[in-house]
What does this fold into?
Amino acid sequence: MSKDSAAQFNEYASLYDDVTGLLSKDIVVPSVLRTIGEVEGLSIFDFGCGTGVYCRFLKERGAGRVVGYDLAEGMVNFARRRAEKDALNITFISQLGPDLSGQFDLVLAVYVMPYATSENELQAMCADMVGLLRPGGRLVTLPIHPSYDPRPSYYEPYGFRLIAENLETPHTNGGRVKLQFCKNGEQGAVFAWYWSAASLERALGQAGLQSLTWRNLAAPAYATLDKAPKELHAYLQKPHSIIIQGVRAG
Ligand SMILES: C[S@@+](CC[C@H](N)C(=O)[O-])C[C@H]1O[C@@H](n2cnc3c(N)ncnc32)[C@H](O)[C@@H]1O
It folds into this structure.
């Protein structure tokens, strides 16, 4: 995503900071935190941090150095103010510097890969993410699920619609997808790009990430799907995102 297209996020800070909806509260946030595991003392870089929701969760759980990075100035400003309000020592930046390379135990990138507009950009983004890790450090990232449900209304109960530009071939590598918000009366949309599993793995592999694993989003508070609230079932059967993790080669 270029600096210009980052602007598409500036006006949606309050929407992204709200983690009280079903999807965030019961599925995405707990799945991400469970995948990350213990963070005590870890140095963590949140790539495409948005309003810094994960930075705050991780700092509150005992992480050491936490840096949030986002190209959209509106997001970074919101994130900084929000963390200050909670007296959390988190650094927020809107530019990557060479001094950061190889510094982090964990890089988190939630919903950022979909904003690479071309395969070259995807590779450059992955190189940036992996370059921030120390050898042996871990990347946790959430792209669009390669098998997301292409029916535009499918995710409406969860506050958004995913509308492929070409509805007849929604799972085309590099295809543009409109992400339309329909939550709390908010209207708006941003554009994202669909990347196949092969493209995602290739870009991460070329960046030097090894031992890639894919993990489905779940509702960790419930032992089995049938124990989860009924309104979550459709999402859990066809989640719009998935977790990929891997380790930087030593
Ligand atoms: C969908 S939001 C997710 C924000 C946050 N990770 C979360 O889950 O709440 C995607 C964010 O990624 C940022 N972004 C997209 N491409 C980026 C890039 N190449 N470098 C840094 N930030 C980027 C956008 O500005 C936006 O704030």
